[in-house]
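Please predict the structure of the following assembly.
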Amino acid sequence: MSPLDIAGFSVLLLLGGALCAMLLSRFERLLIPAAFSLATLTSLATAVAGFLAVLQGTNNAATVAMGLPGLPFNLRLDPLAGFFLVVIGLLSTFVSLYSIGYLRAYRGKRPITRLVVCYLLFLAGMSLVVLADDAYFFLLAWELMAASSYFLVMYEDEQAANRRAAFLYLLVAHVGAIAILLAFGIMAGLTTGVASFSNYTFDAMRAGQLSPAWAGGAFFLAFFGFAAKAGVIPLHVWLPEAHPVAPSNVSALMSGIMLKTSIYGMMRVAFDLIHGFPWWWGGIVLCFGLVSSVLGVLYALMQHDLKRLLAYHSVENIGIILIGLGLSMIFTSFDFQSLAALALVASLYHTLNHALFKGLLFMGAGAVIHATHEKNMEEMGGLIHLLPWTSALFLVGCISIAALPPFNGFVSEWLTFQALLLSPALPHPLLKLLVPLAASLLALTGALAAACFVKAFGVTFLGSWRGHRKKEQIGEVAFSMRLGMLLAALSCLALGVLPTLVMGWMDTVPLKLCGARIATSAGRFGWLWLTPSSQERASYSGPVVFFGLIAVVAATYLLLHVRRTAIRRAPLWDCGFERITPRMQYTATSFAMPIRRVFGFFFSIREQVEVTSPPNHPVMADSLHYRLRVRDRFWNWFYEPLSDIAFWIARRVGRLQQGRIQIYLLYSFVTLIVLLAFLG
Amino acid sequence: MSTELVIQLNTLLAAMILLTSFALLVQRRMFAILHIFAWQGFFLGLSTAVIGFATGEHHLYISSLLTLVMKVILLPYILYTLIHKLKIHREIESVMNTPATMLAGIGLVIFSYHLTAPVRQLSTLMTRSTLAVALATVMLGLLMMVTRRHAVSQIIGFLAMENGLFFAATSATYGMPMVVELGVALDLLIAAFIFGIFFFHINTTFDSLDVDQMAKLKETD
């Protein structure tokens, strides 16, 4: 069986599973384990297919005579598609395992079938997006993915906020889809003319040559369309609305892999379909990446809803991926093939890593919400004793996303830095200015992300419980949920410790796209040391760091536990005061306050303090209310003017509507006469 | 009958149709409008029969019969009962500036002659000269709908437009296929029923059949 057969077969199984799930809707007790076991197995098969495709480094293509007559579906599995199949398959395996336990809580409260069917269709749609090899099938799969995820976001549809979030998501997704459609239209229409339909395949687009202006138009339309789906600032507004309201397994998939399909789309269009572009395209991608990463993490710092915070971090990480992609495009346009390969690998590696750790974090957040019934982290605290497994696994996710060794986030951000630091080789003066700025902003992003996850983990899991529920009601989550998270955490560790092997495996991707592979290892112990450029410049050894850290931790543990007196249990966070209540703890708001002050310009902040004093003592305070509202400035910078203009135009056009039949008839009459006079 | 005579006869009938169109445009009494409409249908049916006789296209006899039954008897009868039931047979509609409407109508006729000039040169059919009249009838029907305020006269304008289309079909290609004509006739019948129902509703809602009243339905901002 070729990898494409395996992938196609698993997609068929998913689609068939969706059909069967509709029939099985009576038996919910059976439906959940059956459907999600199927999803786990097919996802695993997808991952294996992708793995083999990348390993072999060859293209498998097939044509399926379905769809419209004369327009068959074209499928192709090349190393790039294979890599993204691995991303999709790996995370959806873990999330599907997790879902078995997670959805048990919904049973009896609301109908599960819709969720199961849409979930399976969503997985199938994402695989098909990556496998599609013609514009028609690609858009079909893209819409399948968008529509099914819309219903997943809408799952808890009794609240107006959820419906609004889902609508916003659908709106942005469709505006993006139109842009993508137009981009494909340009590429297909201008390469061989619009007369025949044969040029809708990607093969025809690859073969065609576009004039630079049209190529730019096609690329930027596609970039806009994919950026809307990826949540690049300023098109990110749907992300912090949609992710918190979706069920957590769905937000893990959406953030972890659905956003990545648009990265795939950008890479496919730029490197494969258009191939050959001026450097400033990459520069623009790089700038969008920088803005997204810095602003994404700043907005994340201001959030107190755990999933909203994670959603803004997706914006940040997409930014980091785009930095790598933009750099790779710049290097390609100046014919630095091995540097382009390095930047592309950094970008791809971060794609894989982000899928895993963000999936892990969303699963962790889902587990916390599942256990505490709270979404706001200010209402949590002290969960490390109540949910030991979840907190340990969430901590792994935090360390990974904060880019600390030995986990995977560090490796890919380090690679991105290496690519940035190699850019003095570039011949353009503007780039010589831009790239050091980019490096410093990326460093800032990393530091802020670390701060943000100190906040997220600290406020949620440390300290003492400040929620409304009784502490005793909170217990560790189901086994399958823990298993899903554990596997994701282990993959994070493996990708962080053995980057050399992973990069050796994925070398075929840059070889196909940039025409070069990168020498990842040097010396006798090749797998031990990761040296992306040369040994003198920089090298990193995951295993050495990992075992070093284990040694330090083990030594500290032994040191503390050998002497019985070394550990002293005391009230938490009381700073020497006595009788401190949980409400007096350090909060997330106060933690983020210095950053809110420093970067105040980026937010629209409304702060209110209300003091009521007793009538006889006007100076004394009776009660104190502090209200803080931090909003994204992009709402008033971009979207409010946009909607104002839309309404203004609508009112102008509304004047045509007179309400009198004769006037409407007159419109048709005049139209008829004019058409007859000029075209007759 | 010689071809020359047929052409003369057909042109005469076309002229009568055009005349009735202008009469519809400015007539203000309800029953009079109905009578003129029936006459227009009569001339149309006659003209179809003449063409059918001259060309040997015998299915045109069926069309002609259908036209006579539908447009001279059935539709006027339905509208007649409607006008009686709604008690509007005494109403006199206020028509917009009559001379201006007439002038606009004349302009439209000239415009249609101008439009069909290339067709007249290319076509070899004996009915080619009446195509302009057919187009003018369509446009005059539309003009009637635009200028009238009463719902019933607007419907008659619509039916007159349909007459024009039918005439255009016979004069351009010796009629549409039989199936299409049967379908159109059925459509018209159903449309007449639907109009009737709408008249009742408009009348009960607004206490009048003046369509200007419907401007009240517009959303205000």
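Residues 3-213 of chain B form one domain. Chain B has one domain: 3-213.
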